[in-house]
User: Fold this.
Amino acid sequence: MNKEILKIENLTKTYHSQNVSATILKNINLTIEKGEFVCILGPSGCGKSTLIRCVAGFEDFEGKITACGKEVKKPGTDRMMVFQDFNQLYPWKTVEKNIQYPLKVQGMKDKKMLKEISDDALRKVDLDGKQKNYPHELSGGMKQRVAIAKALALKSDIILMDEPFAALDAMTRNKLQAELHLIHEQSGVTVIFITHNIQEALVLGTRVLVMDKKGNIIIDEQNRIPKPVTPASEGYGETWNRLHDALGQ
Ligand SMILES: Nc1ncnc2c1ncn2[C@@H]1O[C@H](COP(=O)(O)OP(=O)(O)O)[C@@H](O)[C@H]1O
Ligand SMILES: [Mg+2]
Assistant:
């Protein structure tokens, strides 16, 4: 059985502005299998966001990206981006309407079915009971979970997350990490998660990638530390140090 869900072949990305061109990513090759939780670490400015934006279909690029068997040319509901920004919901729609809206756009009209899907997605992100609330009534972390619920309701095969927890305090961050871990275990969705936090990569990732300053992937390995990962887990300190050295911090 072919479990490959994302294939990046010879991805090169050059930004052109006025009379300067800057090549940020050069000949990136990467294959991701269904259900993996891939954490990408790298120094600021190395091209992490650029990479995930190419996968999302927000950028043009050279090379080829295939997601769920289809060549990526534009954004698609098979690949949903969850942003760091908490204001990615429609403020004038309730939580459940926010989740249902993309399904309606896709042509789903059955109210009962829409309700079932949004209820189910909200249960998965532990927000049952918030159906009728508006985004301004939720905390930043809750809003982000609604954004994840939206992706789950759409049955997105791949969830793309670009430093989604970077702006949060440590406690909220830990809580959301635990919840995201659970969502991943229960839904089997594939996640590509960018972070510059080694602890976060080890807690969440089933696989960890490190990019260097020039945007090359210099480490690509399975995270073999058994979940739940804590700093006391066997292998944590050794792995943390190795990744830290690779990051050149
Ligand atoms: N739209 C753009 N136009 C020109 N240069 C850009 C653009 N977006 C990002 N860059 C440049 O590309 C490099 C990588 O950026 P980015 O992918 O955001 O890095 P990271 O997410 O790893 O911090 C940076 O040098 C940044 O200035
Ligand atoms: Mg970035």
Notes: The pocket of adenosine-5'-diphosphate (ligand 1) is lined by residues 15, 17, 22, 24, 42, 44-50 (CB under 6 Å).
